[in-house]
Design brief:
The complex is a heterodimer of chains A (324) and B (448). The two termini of chain A are 53 Å apart. In chain A, helix 9 runs antiparallel to helix 11 and helix 10 crosses helix 11. The N terminus and C terminus of chain A are likely disordered. Chain A has a single domain, classed as MetI-like (MetI-like fold). Chain A is built from 14 helices and no strands. Chain A is mainly α. In chain B, strand 1, helix 2 and strand 2 form a beta-alpha-beta unit. Chain B is globular. Chain B is α+β, with helices and mostly antiparallel strands and 448 residues long. Chain B has two domains: 172 residues, Periplasmic binding protein-like II (D-Maltodextrin-Binding Protein, domain 2); 159 residues, D-Maltodextrin-Binding Protein, domain 2 (3-Layer(aba) Sandwich), CATH 3.40.190. Chain B has 16 helices and 16 strands. Classes of the chains: A mainly alpha (324), B alpha+beta (448). Chains A and B meet through helix 2 and helix 13 of A and helix 1, helix 3, helix 15 and helix 16 of B.
Amino acid sequence: MSAASSSVHPASRPRFYQTTRWRQGRDFYLFVSPWVVGTILLTIFPLAYAFGVSLTNWDGISPGFRWVGFDNYAKVLSNPETWASLGRTGMLALVVVPITVVGSLVLAVLLNNKVRFRAGWRTLIYLPAVVPPVAATLTWKLLFERDSGAVNAILGLFGRDAVNWMTGQQVFIVLIVVMLWGIGGGVIINLAALQDVPQELLEAAELDGAGHWRRFVSVTVPTISPVLLFQFVTTTIGVLQTFVPALLLSPGSGAAAITSVPESNRLFMIDVYAEYFAFSRYGYASAMLWLFFVVILLITGIFFKVSGRTVFYAVDPSAGGRND
Amino acid sequence: MGYNASLDRRSFLTWSAVGAAAALAGCTTQGATGAGGAGGAGGKGVTVMGVADDFPKDLLKIWNSKHPDLPVKIIAYDETRLNAMLAAGNPPDLVRGLGAQQAGFLASRKIARPLDDYIAKSSAFKVSDLDPVNDVWRWDGTKQGEGQIYGLTKDYSLDMMLWYNSRLFESVGATAPTAERPPTYDDMLDVAKELTSVKGGKVLRYGMWSTAPAVEGIHAMMATTGVPLFAEDLKTVDFSSPEAQKAVLWLANVAKAKVGYTLLDPNPDGWDWPPFSVQREAMAQAGYWFAGAVAGGEGTGKWARLAPAPMLGTKRVSPTTSATGHWIPTKAKNPDGAFALLEWFTAGEPAVARAKSGWGIPIIRSLASHLPTAEPFQKEALETQRAESQYATVLTFSPYATVTALSATVAGLFPQLVKGGMTIGQFADQANDKCNQLLAEGVSRVGG
């Protein structure tokens, strides 16, 4: 056998597009690309565009506008109405967020028990969450209508005078009711989390003599704490950005509706809308939005910072996703 | 490692950004504005931003048979969308608008196209055929009512006139207003107090029409005093004049008296017809056009009567504050097609149909002969309207801020005035500061 015929040829080096690593990279990027492109198109670009607009005095349609630097930001911060609407928005969040998170947890715990017609109860509680917010708001508006609404009809049965729910401080109560209407969404998330609580932990605690409440506080809540944090953060952001229900509870339509939003429902996003489309101050409104973005970012950051000691992850997030 | 160099994270993100930017560039002029359709893109048709009811299908069939090359696409009027389309340089070809309130605003920003050359060439009508009310669409650079024409009114009314329920007026022995003797605002407040009925906190009937501290309304009320709300150069307003304060205080008194829907007790229907038609409101502030609604109501013609515009002062005038019509954007893709449609809409079959329905006074004067008189109330309403027309006047609004913006500013202060949180003097000072700031911003953008 000649040396040539007996020698083993080394495997030819694979081309770069034939490697597993390249294929894995390609697949990864193909899968994430819709999200990345979407984020650039629908988030990064609008944010950058709004930031550019916030540095001008543009009114949305006039060809002539000029660069004003950070004047709009200074005006927003020095305007007492900014702080008033932020205060109202904060108040709404203070009321709605705890009730939503705690209420949805309580309902989920109840529905997690073996009660009769459990599937029916779950459906009933979740159903409002799938009703479009616009339809839900308009329905509540009809129910709270002073002269022909069901709420005042019930009050009338008890000999109480009708209340004008759509004005003054009362309309803020109606807004809270509308916001709490969709609590079923949180119930479903909590229910899924509750069903994921390891039974062995609960049984071990029971063997150690822990009662229902102790097991709930010391086992269930810590185990589902990441889900509760998620709900807390997303509900807070959602409530801070409340716009449609507050606008729909006013009688007008379009930009002119802004003139009839009662003061107690003049939330921050309502003011932003008014500045854009009623007052045509696109630069000023964009500055409001950017400042609000920063505020929400800070609040979210604080939540995560504070949650470090109270939220427990089954997988240590600092391990970079590895379960080792 | 080198194999992955062409697809690392950094290059992926870079190319994503480039792709996204390219996609954005492509959609800015079309997709984002959604104006692609009939006239927006290729000038093959006419895109109208307006109200579909203005262009009923049976009438559009007539148009299509005459102009098969100019299909009409109607998109619902939406101020936000219009702004986006204008900003993207791809506006509709024809837009609905309020001539009285918007002509100066649109013309001074060069958003609307002058129509004088088109009208001069029109075979359907001449400038002399137009009712003088259409002059609200004129703007000469500083003044409304003179200069080039920037739009055409479809039909109009004298918007401060009243409709009242004659049976309810009789029931409380109230003197019905006549064409010769217009009511005063204070008279109407007194009558409204008599006619309002509340039980258990629920309103069975309001005596007054729905009121709001809208700038156009205050401006119109003040017109009967001879003192305008706007300064002559239209760059400022003055709420501190006795006349302005009188108008605002009257509105506040209505809200305090709780005799009608107000900003603090909003009309759930948004306009007067629903409560008026079921006799839950004894009065409605609307011009002749309400006759169209009355004709369609069940038995409303038996008791609904038109009255002259109320007076705040002693100068008898009856203003038009809207003069609804259409304008053609400067950057419209198919202005010729748009005017052809507007010409037909103003003087052709749609104009005749509108005149016969009684939903407003036609802007082409000769078409007034079609206004309905079959029902006694229609005949009476037309007589009242004709008597009132000698006092017709067109109000001038500032081009430097929209009426919506000024009204929103005033509305923000009004509840405090009603609740006693501020005096009328304080209200006037704050309204002046805020409104004049808005107007100053407009001046800085437009020049003037």
